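Quick one, probably user error.
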């Protein structure tokens, strides 16, 4: 199955489902309304669209749809990151990393984590295998 492209509010809905495991449309609406105003009918429409994309499924319990995620957060992150790298950085992951290092606030702790990741052998292995698979 291909990982779907998600809009901003669809992604907020997915975060709720990933955190809870399952939820009704009303549960999702109530949770979203803690941080922004959104109509219940809009949530229902977005859930139908997410279902059509294959991102969520539902079960019927006492005439109520119980929604659950069908895609993992990492699948969605990977697709979104790949799109950003391709669209804005000409396919270069180094371009994205360079941009983030120059233009975003990165704490000393995060910078140390990045340095540790870059120095690990498996990062080199992923780079080599990606070149061979391209």
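Nope, works fine. Designed sequence:
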């Amino acid at each position: 199955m291909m990982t779907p492209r998600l809009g901003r509010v669809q992604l907020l809905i997915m975060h709720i489902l990933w955190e809870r495991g399952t939820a009704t449309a009303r549960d999702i609406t109530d949770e979203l309304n803690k941080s922004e105003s959104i109509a219940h009918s809009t949530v229902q429409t977005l859930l139908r669209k997410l279902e059509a994309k294959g991102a969520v499924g539902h079960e019927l319990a006492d005439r109520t749809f119980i929604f659950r995620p069908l895609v993992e957060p990492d699948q969605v992150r990977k697709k979104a990151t790949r799109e950003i790298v391709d669209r804005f950085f000409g396919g270069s992951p180094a371009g994205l990393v360079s941009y983030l290092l120059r233009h975003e606030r990165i704490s000393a702790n995060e910078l140390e984590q990045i340095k540790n990741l870059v120095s690990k052998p498996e990062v080199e292995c992923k780079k080599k295998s990606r070149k061979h698979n391209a």
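The two ends are 21 Å apart (CA to CA).
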